[in-house]
Every structure is written in C-alpha cells, then in structure tokens.
C-alpha cells in the first residue's frame, strides 16, 4: 500500500504542477494513471475531488480576472452535460472496457489539441453555439472521465488574449462543474471511507504542486508545458489501452 500511495502522490504532484503552469492538465494526466489502481468511476471521483483544490488554489490567486458574464452560457451547457454523464457513469463506470475507452479518448484529445489551430470567425464567436457545444461536451466528458478540460481550454483561449483571464475563468468552470458532479455522487452514496487517506494526502500534494506551477506561470511559455503534457497523456493513454 505504501508503494501504491507513493506512486499516486507522484502522479497528482506532476498533474497539479502542469495545471498550475498551463491552466489545465491535472485531470488529463491523473486519469491516465489513476485507473490502473482503481475503477474508472472511483478514479474519476477521486480526481474530481482533488481538482476542486487545484482550481481553488488558482482562483485564490487570480480571482480579480474573473468575468462572470462570460461564464453563464458555457456553465449552463456544461452542467447539462454533467447531469447526463452522472447517469452514464453510474450505469457503466465499473465495466473494464471503460479503461480502454478512456485510453482511446486521451489519445484523441491529444490529436484534438494538435489540430485545433484553426480559429472560428469573429462572427461565430459572438453566437451562443460555440460556448454551448464546448460547454456541453466539456461537462459530459469531464463527468465521465474527469478530463473535459481541453474543451474549455480551447474556448477560453479563443475569447481571452490575457492569460490571467484565461486561467482564472477556466478554473471557475472546472470548480463549478466538479462541485456539481461530486454533489450528485454524494447524494447517490458513491463515496466510501477507504478514499479518505488518499484524499488527505492528495490535498497536501496538489497544493504543493499547484503552488510550484503558479510560480512558473510567469516564467515558462505555456505552449511548451502543454506540448509536454500532450506527450505524457499520449503515453498514459497507450498504457491504459495495452495493459488494462
């Protein structure tokens, strides 16, 4: 158990550091490895709970850059996706094939990020369809796999040139979505006391990782960190496909 705990600590430390620097990546990285120790459902709940701490740490630093009006539509769409994901996760979360599906999904996310250089027109950005689409799929995928972040990342990179606004508003969406999903699962009785030790150790670890990441936020190009994260996520996805 001690070896397992140490490996999990390293995983969430690296994941929280990546999110501190780039604004996202904790769920992507952690969900590439945590399901090797727990079921997909247990892993998603564990990662979502720790994601609250990661997001709260970043919000605490950058809260002055939050623009509430820009969040209303995408939050509404994402919460709708989370509700649907809640029922699907309860129905299929314990099935072994979900780990292979997750591995394929992680790799597809990497391709999505690599091929998402073409930006929509300014006219399209003014419509509601963009935040609705990215919000729904971000909430849906995040509710099942705890890795819906790339959809929100792409949206906020499109509408914000200021990296502090991008990061602060992105964390608000993560925080609200994860809180909503955890409340649903809590009411459904999906939590158990066996995760308490992992969670307590995890909270301390993600605070350390996020703090270190935030210190690098102003120094390293975000694109460099994102490229490194994509390589790691690809390897994690292949690991799940081959060995699960």
Automatic annotation (TrEMBL):
The keyword Transmembrane helix appears for this protein: yes
InterPro entries attached to this UniProt entry: TM_pro_TauE-like (IPR002781), TSUP (IPR052017)
Sequence intervals crossing the membrane: 6-31, 43-60, 66-89, 101-117, 129-158, 195-217, 224-243
Major site of localization recorded for this protein: membrane
This protein's record includes keyword Cell membrane: yes
Keywords: Cell membrane, Membrane, Transmembrane, Transmembrane helix, Transport
Highest rank taxon of the organism: Bacteria
GO cellular component entries: plasma membrane
Sequence similarity: Belongs to the 4-toluene sulfonate uptake permease (TSUP) (TC 2.A.102) family.
Record-linked PANTHER family: MEMBRANE TRANSPORTER PROTEIN (PTHR30269:SF37), TRANSMEMBRANE PROTEIN YFCA (PTHR30269)
Protein name per the record: Probable membrane transporter protein
